[in-house]
Specification:
Layout (H helix, E strand, L loop, with lengths): L1 H21 L5 E6 L5 E5 L12 H11 L6 E3 L2 H4 L13 E3 H9 L4 H12 L2 H14 L22 H12 L2 H8 L2 E7 L2 E7 L4 H4 L3 E9 L3 E10 L2 E8 L4 H15 E6 L5 E7 L5 E5 L3 E6 L5 E5 L4 E2 L7 E9 L2 E9 L10 H14 L2
Helix pairs in contact: 2-4, 2-5, 2-7, 4-5, 5-6
Length: 368
């Protein structure tokens, strides 16, 4: 009787889950494993759509990769702050740091902050947009193109739910970005002269869902409500994206729950646990490598294979704590995790060049 009851409950849960996913209000939606990038759920995930202020995820990432000092201050111009839409309240002649601009974009969704960053970092809006599109290419994105740094509607400004998730995944690897995206509020200092003022994050999920760590809201009449969220729980990270979704807060809570429930954190021993690498000109002929277990998240039920990647031989001396290779872990031929192989010291010995050539020749013959 208990087995029948459990089976019935499981069937009900499955039906309800299926109904809820089909009932997502968004024109496009996706959930990915934040560690591996694996797609856990997708609805029109590869359809090109406008993304409103979620654009600022890329704007912030390009800022962070091109700014050596976030606390450096700049003085705003009329060109920088003259932009429609949401604002952090910048005026011409204000002194403001890049850090304040980052938080002004991510929390207050300031179009003035995005425009100021674009001109200050890229020399012009067009110059900065080139950097944004170059970064999109570097990330391997095929269906993303930027025209504005703020996300205001423009012809040719688009992405997909899936590629926007990949942008967020890349950005969250930056600690400054992750800190700003997770902040519920912040006290910033800017103006002429600068004075302190508070800004609150537009992302209500930070207060509605305990495990949420960001990321960004967006809205225009053309794009509708857009939202990128991320949640971390028990070592698992998932990223959800919805584009043109009138019920995004509720949808994201469900999507994040679904994603977190679909993956597991596992510890794997590499298939090749111990390897000896020949050392040319060393006091020891071989360097013994012991690989350590790797811990990462994957979709439940997926099998894992590992590949040992290291040189066939090394030259002495081998310095301590040098990366000499890595172990790659794959699920369904997709790289999901990579761990480094760290060397231990191998001292060199005095050898003449002819002896060294003889050793190399001997080693080459062993591979024939």
């Amino acid at each position: 009787m208990k087995r029948i009851l459990c089976a019935f409950i499981s069937l009900v849960i499955l039906i309800l889950s299926s109904y809820c996913v089909k009932g997502i209000s968004a024109n496009a939606a996706v959930v990915v494993n934040g560690d591996s990038g694996d797609v856990l759920y997708s609805h029109n995930g590869d359809v090109r759509l406008p993304m409103a202020s979620t654009t600022k995820i890329m704007t912030a990432l390009v800022l962070l990769e091109n700014c050596k000092n976030l606390d450096e201050e700049i003085v705003t111009t009329k060109e920088m702050v003259t932009v429609e839409g949401s604002s952090m309240g910048l005026l011409p002649g204000d002194r403001v740091s890049y850090r304040a601009l980052l938080y002004g974009m991510m929390l207050a969704s300031g179009n003035d902050a995005a425009n100021t960053v674009a001109i200050a970092v890229g020399g012009s809006v067009a110059g900065f947009v080139e950097l944004m599109n170059k970064k999109a290419q570097d990330l391997g994105l095929k269906n993303t193109h930027f025209v504005t740094p703020s996300g205001l509607d423009a012809e040719g400004h688009y992405t997909t739910a899936y590629e926007l998730a990949l942008i967020a995944r890349a950005a969250l690897k930056n600690s400054d970005f992750a800190e700003a995206a997770a902040a519920k509020s912040a006290t910033l200092c800017y103006g002429n002269p600068p004075y302190k003022r508070s800004v609150s994050n537009h992302n209500r999920l930070l207060r509605m869902y305990d495990d949420v760590i960001g990321v960004k809201t967006g809205f225009t009449k053309k794009s509708g409500r857009c939202l990128v969220s991320a949640a971390r729980r028990d070592g698992k990270l998932v990223i959800a994206v919805t584009l043109n979704d009138g019920n995004d807060w509720a949808d994201h809570r469900f999507l994040l729950d679904t994603g977190l429930g679909a993956i597991e954190v596992c510890e794997y021993e590499p298939e090749c646990k111990s390897v000896s690498i020949p050392v040319i000109g060393g006091e020891k002929e071989y360097l013994n490598i012991q690989t350590s277990p790797a811990k990462f998240s994957k979709q439940k039920g997926q099998s894992v294979t590992s590949v040992f990647c290291a040189p066939r031989f090394l030259y002495a001396p081998v310095e301590d704590n040098t990366i000499i290779g890595n172990v790659e872990y794959y699920t369904l031929d997709r790289l999901v995790y990579k761990s480094n192989i760290i060397s231990t010291v191998v001292k060199g010995k005095k050898v003449n060049k002819w002896h060294l050539i003889a050793e190399l020749f001997k080693l080459m013959l062993s591979y024939v």
